[in-house]
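Pipeline run #58 for the internal structure catalog. This entry was flagged by the ingest filter as a single-chain record with no existing model, so it goes straight to prediction. Upstream metadata was stripped on purpose; only the residue string is passed forward. Reviewer on rotation: M.T. Logging verbosity set to normal.
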Amino acid sequence: MNKILSASLAAIMLSTAASASCSSMGFYTGAAISENFTHNKYVNDKKNRLKVRAKIGADLFVGYGGKINGTCTTFGVEFRAGSIFGKTNFKPNDTEEQTSLKTKYQLGLFALVGYEFTPGWEAGVVAGANATQYELKISEDKNSVAKKKVKFQPEAGLYVKAQLTDMFSLRLDGTYVFKAKVALPKADIAKVDHKITKYDTKGWKVRLAGIFNF
């Protein structure tokens, strides 16, 4: 009798899991924290120098996700707004120049395509781009110049998602952030007799998002 009850209970649980599998997600919102391993390179008349730094970031997002033609293949589109905290400082050894590069804000649009390979678990690819505002400040002696530049920065990678409850899930993204070039106008560079001509920033991002389904 106990074996029959156990078998019946197992069948019910499997049936429930199967019905929950490949379910449509609908609209969602959430918050995320990220670790950004940025590679910042500055270029002057003589040489290139690279500085790598890990920075914490955070963002809020809204989106919509659902099934493709009623299968277990899923898609999602989401809008993100956030920032990366901290700044990268440069100081060439052979000059008195001081430089800092800082992210002020990021606004991004991303698309996700995945597959729910088992009930509650999904994996796939994510790609999109951020409009990132950088603040570049240079100084030498008592002269200084600061400018803000908005750069379009593509990003792509992989994700895995775990549906913990009907209303809440966690998603881990690993993406590569493509290079953006940040430079000051020549007139501003001349004000401080600056030798550096441009800055390149790119790197890897690991992002953990908490998602709340409507």
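catalog note: DSSP finds two helices and nine strands in the chain.
catalog note: The CA atoms of residues 72 and 187 lie 56 Å apart.
status: ready for reviewer M.T.
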